[in-house]
Every structure is written in structure tokens, then in C-alpha cells.
What we know:
The chain has 403 residues and is mainly α.
Amino acid sequence: MGLLSLSALPPQIKQYLIITGNYWAFTLTDGALRMLVVLYFHQLGYSPLNIAMLFLFYEIFGVVTNLVGGWLGARLGLNNTMNIGLGLQIVALAMLTVPADMLTVMYVMAAQALSGIAKDLNKMSAKSAIKMLVPGDAQGKLYQWVAILTGSKNTLKGVGFFLGGLLLTLLEFRGAVILMAAMLVVVWVMSLFTLKADLGKAKNKPKFTDMFSKSPAINMLSAARMFLFGARDVWFVVALPVFLAVTFQWDHWWVGGFMASWVIGYGIVQSFAPYFTGKKQGKVPTGRSAFLWATYLLLIPAAIALMLHFDFYIHVTLIAGLMLLGAVFAINSSLHSYLIVSYAGHDGVSLDVGFYYMANAIGRLIGTVLSGWVYQQYGLEACLWISSAFVALAAVISLKLPR
């Protein structure tokens, strides 16, 4: 019945559902793997900075992949880049199934590099494909589809965080990775046969130099995105899970559960972002919207840092503050995700989207390294102050976006 009803859907809806399903499956394993690596290597006695270094290649290769991946998507088709991403994630997971004594820092960094390439190929393909499935004059629908895809992805990433903590407890590291690889193989085989050929392939073959955006609006939005995601990852990637494990003395279940709850709530708010930003009045976001919501956001990490500084009911204020931060950050992220798809050109859309997510990956790289180093040297409070400063920079840059 399910397959019959799927075949009866319009082609655009069917492709959207297949792309979203691929993105969901990939995201589940990506979130679980991140939590597995953080908790497992913390358990082995690695310092916060060393744990951050395990993700260094993941983020560096994400930068390169988004830039080159956008060009590949325009030349090969987004169906091919999405399937290549799924295949590489399977290889990355398989690399981590070796015995524990072989999991050296360099080896894990290499596996994470493959995973970083896979993740950004998958994300760039999914976000770009939506532009091809929605008519140019249906901006409201485009915003809604982007918000649903982005929000549901982050909800699943949160489930992945919880799954990572749970699987580490039940199956240990190797067993958890084997199970995830097997699940993704099934999804990959289905995707090879169901995803439309040549989706998003540019009519005119783009040159390699076309990877760099020539649009001032996209350049400004990309710069704002870089600081926005640096602001999140500077406290989120390493500092927060280690702080919860050490200062609050939470076990794997609790740390994974809280990180999962944060990302799930973040994803749900992202999905409904159009309703917070004027959809009821028939409005879609502009550059002014990006500036206003960034301004609201920058106050929250600063307030949490002050609470930590004065030791003011830390358990309550940190948890409640981070939940509020997640909600407002989700709206900022959803606005940005819509604006890049809206600003991007229709022919060779993946070039613009790839360039934008390259800036996103640079922000994540900066945030990841700072998360380990700043936390180790100065603690979570310093990470939150840096977060607030980064959001302020994103807000200033957003003033240059089209109104």
C-alpha cells in the first residue's frame, strides 16, 4: 500500500520524499557517530583538545567538499553526488569497525575525513535539489520545503545523538558502528534505483573557476553563516558534552539524551520557522529578517555566560538558557537556509549552495577547534562569550544583505 501510494504522487513530491529520506538516514548515522566518538574517546582519557582534533579533518574536508561538490553536482547531477555521499559514509563507518588498538588518532581522523566529505556531499545535494523541484514564483512554498527538510534533518540528528549514547552503552563502539553501516547499505542501494537521473545538472558545463560565487548577496550571506555556525560549535561540539560529563557528572545516557533533546527541539523549531517569521502575513524573509534574528540571538549566550560567572543556579540556568538559545538559533538557521536557496541561480544551483555551505563548514571548523582549546584553557564561560561575539559579527554582516 505504501509503495502504491508513493508511485501515485506527483514526480516532484516523490523526488522530494526520496531526497528527504536519504538525508534523514544519513543524518541519523552522522549524529550517532559524532556522539560515539566524543563519549568513547573521552572514556579512553583523551583531553577535550585531542577530541576536537579527531573532528579536524571532518571539518577541513567539509570545506573543500562543499566548494568542489557544488561544481560536481552541476556537472554530474545531484542524484550522483548524493549517492556518492552515502557510499563514502558506509566506507567511513566500515573503517571504524577495526579492533580498538588500531583506532589511533590519525586513523580516526582519516575515517572522519571521509565522513566529512560524505556529509557535505549529501547536504549540498539535498538542499540544492529542492530549488529544482519548486517553481520560481512559489517562494513561500520554497521556504516551507527548505524549513521542513532542514528542521527534520536536525531532529533526526538529535535522535542520532541519543542513539549514539544508547548504542555505546548496549553494543560498545564497534558493535554500534557495524549496525549503522548495515542500515546505511540498505538505504544506499534503494537510492541508486529510485533517485532521478541528472537532477540539477547544469545545461552549460560550469568551469572549475565557477565554484566561487560572483554574487555579492551570496558572499555576504556566506560570511554571516560562517560566524553563525562558528558561534554554535564553539560551545556545542566538545565543550558542552565534556562539561556535562565532568562538572555535572552525567553518564553517557544523560549526556547523549540532553544533546539529543537540544537538537530535536532545535529541529522542530526550524521546521516551524516560517510561522515565526511572517508566513501568516504572506511574507518571506529578507536580509533585514536575518539581521533582527541575529540581534536577538547574541544576547542569549552572553546571558548564560554571566550566569555561569556568578554561579547562579548553574544546573537550571544552563539547561534552560541553552534550550532558549536552541530555539532562537533554529530560526536564524532556517532563515539562512531559505535565503541561500532563494538567492541561488536556477541553472547550476549547486554551485551557489556549495559555496555557501563551504563558508558554513569553515565556521564549523573554527568553532570545533576553539571548542576544544578554549574549553581546556578557560572553560565553558569563555566559549559562550566567544559565541556571542561571533553572532554579533553575523548580525553586522547581515546589514549588507538585500532588503
